[in-house]
């Protein structure tokens, strides 16, 4: 994306230029290994254009910013009935430290990171370039 802003309770909590805005859903089965794996994948995934316009550079190589926003509704399962079940989502007290671990690991790898406010109702503004949207899961398919 070329730019994004995150607001919570009417307050601007994060703003960024070009980079990745990542919505992170933490599952109850996730652990510190998943957090480290996700951070590594986010900063090294080759999806930014090189000098030929090919998706060939990582976030670190492109100099972009990583924006991380907690989004438990990504774990919503609406295959049955008319109301999504969030049973697979981690409890907030378990999810918050794992989200912080992703942020810390990405910063440790050298990424500039901004983040939303965990547990808040947030408003996201973004300009999605491409558009390109990629689903990442730290668990292999069943």
Briefly say what this structure is.
The chain is α/β, with parallel strands linked by helices and 142 residues long.
Per DSSP E runs of 2 or more residues, the count of β-strands stands at: 8
What is the fold-level CATH name, i.e. the topology?
D-tyrosyl-trna(Tyr) Deacylase, Chain: A
CATH class: Alpha Beta
Can you say what the CATH homologous superfamily is?
Answer: D-tyrosyl-tRNA(Tyr) deacylase
The CATH architecture would be: 3-Layer(bba) Sandwich
Number of helices: 3
Please give the radius of gyration in angstroms. Answer: 15 Å
Strand order of the largest sheet: 2-1-8
* Distance, first to last CA: 31 Å
Question: Which outline best applies?
Answer: globular
Mean pLDDT: 95
Number of discrete domains? 1
Approximate helicity band? 10-25%
**Structural class by secondary-structure content:** alpha/beta
Can you walk me through this structure?
The protein is α/β, with parallel strands linked by helices. It has one domain: D-tyrosyl-tRNA(Tyr) deacylase (D-tyrosyl-trna(Tyr) Deacylase, Chain: A, 3-Layer(bba) Sandwich), CATH 3.50.80.10. The chain contains three helices and eight strands, in the order βββαββαβαββ. The strands form three sheets. Strands 2-1-8 form a three-stranded antiparallel beta sheet, with no helix packed on it. A three-stranded parallel beta sheet has the order 3-6-7. Strand 1 and strand 2 (11-16) form a beta hairpin. Helix 1 packs across helix 3. The protein is globular. The protein starts with a strand and ends in a 15-residue tail after the last strand. The mean pLDDT is 95.
């Amino acid at each position: 994306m070329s730019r994004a802003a995150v607001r919570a309770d009417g307050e601007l909590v994060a703003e960024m230029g070009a980079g990745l805005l990542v919505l992170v859903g933490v599952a109850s089965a996730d652990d510190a290994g998943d957090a480290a794996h996700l951070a590594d994948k986010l900063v090294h995934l080759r999806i930014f254009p090189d000098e030929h316009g090919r998706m060939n550079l990582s976030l670190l190589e492109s100099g972009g910013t990583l924006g991380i926003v907690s989004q438990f509704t990504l774990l919503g399962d609406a295959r049955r009935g008319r109301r999504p079940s969030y049973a697979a989502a981690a409890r907030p007290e378990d999810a918050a430290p794992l989200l912080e671990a992703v942020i810390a690991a990405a910063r440790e790898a050298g990424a500039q990171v901004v983040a939303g406010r965990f547990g808040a109702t947030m408003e996201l503004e973004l300009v999605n370039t491409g558009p390109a949207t990629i689903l990442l899961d730290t668990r292999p398919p069943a």
